[in-house]
Design goal:
The structure holds 2 protein chains of 2 kinds. Chain A contains 19 helices and 5 strands. By secondary structure, chain A is mostly helical. The chains are: A mainly alpha, B mainly alpha. At the A-B interface, helix 12, helix 13, helix 16, helix 18 and helix 19 of A face helix 1, helix 2, helix 7, helix 8 and helix 9 of B.
Chain lengths: 488, 325
């Protein structure tokens, strides 16, 4: 039974907005030209592929549902079967009966990664470990008890001889790489065929044009980045079936699974915040610049006041208030997931409140300049209504500023989430996020030998996304702001 | 000039009133003092008497805006709004929820904050400006391209990573300086080195990249072309013309953040155990001490507005073309 959380709904709304913008941009040359130059930039295309992979995972994680509760007989019949197979079997068996749903909320990504989710250990274990990280009393076959590192329940459990682990890892890596390359080749063939078809060439000519980088869009870079991502993904999947490739955390949860689940949180904060703040920033900014006078004074007062409150403190105050409200009205939330989701949404809103002022000020300045332009003067002399002038003449001419700000803000917001979660004013502690991972792993640094994998995983996943976003933002800015491009 | 400053100071009053109203609404209207008391006392076994006692202890037992039971001017002054919000204007911060004098704490904790923030700013400025100048000197070479890639990568690393990595490398691996803590007087030096290094390194990415664009913008101007055309060496062009003019946006940007240095660096201070205002704020947030958060919000706004005014004044000092009116 599908569940639509509030942030899910907003994500789908965001996609609709993005599609609408895409259609609009495709019909207008002044918007199409910069995007075309983004598509021609090698860095831009590579960054886009990486971001695309993150977005795909985030979207899979945004489709939630209540899983069907299986009849007891069906689930006990196939306890060791893989989850996909079990879901099929359960679905088939439960079909004739009345469907029952558990109260648990899962996402499509959870189903795909169900192996990772369910293979819990007792506590810490290092990446690729076959034994726990901490010593525990183990009962020997003869009844005596020895303190040692007990073997993991799942990680490396398929190995008959633990000393063959290196060989097993190598085999799995090669196997994963081959699978990844096969998928990549299939995709490549499809793409080459499409490109060749569009260029009116034969398949071979198209392939060599791509390979020698003679195409306007750098397909070669795209394919190479895609190859790296696919190989990495398939190798990780192949290895993760037998090991905890990034180790496990304090309660034995797989760190790789946590990192993947955190992607959605990061993306939601980076994008929804913008979606929340955009209407206010655009409307108020243009109004202040266009109408001037009292309207301008009031709007300027509003954003100076908001801006003068230190951002972190405003967020802290608002989140504290939310916590007080949630503790006192705990019965209003159906489930923990819903509660965490609402807190995430609230965090986006409050981040939006603290970050809309910059864009608003930029838009005000630009509208001040635009309203003096001849075509705006002419329109108002001809008696065109204010609303029409704004939507026809002002708004299209400030869209590029909006675009640049949206893209530039994204990476900062993703990084901000980690810091806020560290101060406990970020997302709900029960929610998977890179900030929460770092926060909980920080205390374990004092251990000897140190538990580094949670921190490292969170940083690497975050770094990849933020780096790609930063590079992409640079390309977008250069494309939309010709003045800057000339300076470079 | 002085008339301008006075007018700007007067403009600040409505803004501060606005800030005050926002915090008042957030802290007292959205959640009543009863909610706060329940939160502080814990969920279980809260009796109405306990809530009343907590409120009386902390001065929240008055009406919000208008006290109908009081006499004369007390009708307006014996209220939460007057006691808790308006008194901030006189920098009377009152006592925290745990009973300490906030004003005293702030005056004590200001100095450690400044001891970190000021060196970070100065050293960071020196490094960022020299690095950016070097990139511009070698522009359109591999040094330029490589540096830009490095800077973008450094920007993309979370600030938390610099702190944790720095603590691990310097403190744990090499045992050079203590990982955290603070001392008064000259002994503070060894505690300050690591946070300052971390702060500077963490800021290189953003800072240098920004300054690089400032320099490039100046380097493309006509007067620079003239300077080159009359045969000046590149070194002289850079230092005597480009640097001097690009310093205007850099310096005014720095002036804007000067007052905020007192507020301290939130995350750095709490990681390194420095008893400054940043860690004070974070502790208050974690302990849910609303009185301190309220005081810090007000203090931050005052300092921000001060920064705005200083920026305007510094523009006239460094750039004679700008006149304040």
């Amino acid at each position: 039974m599908p569940v639509i959380l509030t942030t899910d709904a907003l994500i789908f709304l965001l996609i609709a907005v993005a599609l609408g913008y895409g259609v609009y941009a495709a019909q207008h040359e002044h918007l199409r030209a910069p995007w075309r130059s983004v598509a021609r930039s090698r860095v831009g295309v590579a960054a886009l592929v990486v971001i695309g992979c993150y977005v795909l995972i985030g979207l899979l994680d945004s489709m939630h549902f209540h899983p069907r509760v299986e009849p007891v007989a069906a689930s006990s019949a196939a306890p060791a079967a893989t989850d996909a197979a079990r879901a099929d079997a359960g679905g088939a068996a439960a079909a004739p009966m009345e469907a029952r749903y558990s109260t648990q909320v899962l996402s499509v990504l959870d189903v795909i990664l169900s192996g990772l989710r369910e293979r819990q250990e007792k506590t810490f274990s290092a990446p690729f470990a076959t034994h726990l990280f901490v010593k525990e009393p183990i009962e020997q076959p003869d009844g005596s008890i020895v303190r040692g590192y007990p073997p993991l329940e799942h990680g490396g459990a398929h190995l008959k001889d633990p000393s063959r682990r290196g060989f097993d890892i190598a085999v799995r890596t090669v196997l994963g790489a081959i699978k990844g390359l096969l998928v990549w080749m299939a995709l490549t063939a499809g793409l080459v065929w499409l490109v060749a078809h569009a260029r009116g060439e034969t398949f071979n000519d198209g392939a060599s044009a791509i390979w020698q980088a003679r195409t306007t869009v750098p397909w070669r870079v795209l394919l190479l980045t895609l190859a790296v991502m696919l190989v990495l993904g398939f190798v990780a999947a192949e290895l993760a079936a037998g090991y905890h490739i990034l180790g496990t955390d304090k309660v034995g949860e797989d760190v790789f699974y946590q990192s993947l689940k955190s992607i959605r949180t990061g993306l939601v904060i980076g994008t929804l915040t913008t979606l929340v703040m955009l209407p206010a920033a655009v409307i108020l900014g243009i109004m202040a610049g266009y109408f001037r006078g009292l309207t301008d004074d009031i709007i300027q007062y509003l954003y100076t006041t908001l801006n003068s409150i230190p951002g972190v403190l405003l967020i802290a105050a608002a989140i504290l208030m939310l916590q007080v409200y949630m503790t006192n009205n705990a019965d209003q939330f159906a489930s923990l997931v819903e509660r965490a989701d609402l807190r995430l949404l609230f965090l986006c809103i409050i981040l939006g409140v603290t970050s809309w002022t910059g864009l608003c000020r930029l838009l005000r300045g630009e509208s001040l300049k635009l309203r003096e332009q001849d075509y705006v003067q002419a329109a108002s002399a001809l008696g065109v209504r204010h609303g029409t002038i704004i939507s026809r003449h002002i708004l299209p001419n400030v869209l590029h500023i909006v675009m640049i700000t949206v893209v530039l803000d994204f990476s900062g917001l993703v990084l901000a989430e980690a810091v806020l979660s560290y101060v406990n004013i970020g997302v709900d502690p029960t929610m998977n996020s890179w900030g929460n991972m770092i926060n909980s792993a920080r205390l374990e640094l004092a251990r000897e030998p140190i538990v580094w994998w949670s921190l490292a995983a969170a940083f690497v996943f975050m770094f990849t996304l933020v780096l790609a976003a930063n590079l992409f933002a640079d390309v977008v800015r250069d494309a939309f702001d010709p003045r800057l491009a000339r300076v470079r | 000039m002085s008339a301008y400053i006075i007018r700007r100071l007067l403009y600040a009053i409505p803004i501060l009133i606005g800030v005050n109203l926002i915090t008042f609404v957030l802290f007292f209207v959205v959640n009543s003092p009863d909610d706060m008391a329940r939160m502080q006392l814990g969920d279980k076994r809260v009796t109405p008497e306990a809530i009343q006692a907590w409120k009386a202890d902390h001065g929240y037992d008055r009406p919000l805006l208008y006290n109908a039971q009081a006499e004369g001017t007390d009708k307006l002054t014996d209220t939460i709004f007057f006691e808790k919000s308006l008194k901030l204007f006189a920098f009377d911060f009152g006592t925290s929820d745990s009973g300490r004098d906030i004003g005293y704490d702030i005056r004590q904790r200001m100095w450690p904050s400044l001891a970190i923030a000021l060196p970070v700013l100065l050293v960071g400025l020196a490094i960022n400006i020299s690095y950016a100048l070097m990139i511009v000197f070698f522009r359109a070479t591999y040094i330029d391209v490589g540096s830009v890639v490095l800077l973008v990568a450094m920007m993309s690393i979370s600030g938390l990573f610099y702190i944790i990595g720095g603590q691990f490398l310097v403190g744990k691996l090499f045992h050079l300086v203590p990982i955290s803590g603070y001392d008064t007087g000259l002994d503070a030096f060894k505690f300050l080195i690591l946070p300052v290094i971390v702060g500077v390194v963490g800021g290189i990415g953003t800072g240098t990249r920004l300054y690089r664009t400032f320099f490039l913008e100046e380097a493309n101007r006509d007067y620079v072309r003239t300077a080159r055309a009359k045969g000046l060496r590149e070194r002289i062009v850079l230092f005597r013309h480009v640097l001097k003019n690009a310093l205007i946006p850099i310096l005014t940007g720095v002036v804007a953040v000067l007052p905020l240095l007192f507020m301290g660096a939130l995350i750095t201070e709490s990681f390194f155990g420095i008893p400054g205002l940043g860690s004070y704020t974070i502790d208050a947030i974690n302990r849910q001490d609303f009185a301190i958060v309220r005081a810090m919000v007000f203090l931050g706004s005052v300092l921000y507005i001060l920064g705005l005014i200083l920026t305007d004044i510094s523009y006239t000092m460094v750039d004679p073309r700008v006149r304040l009116s």
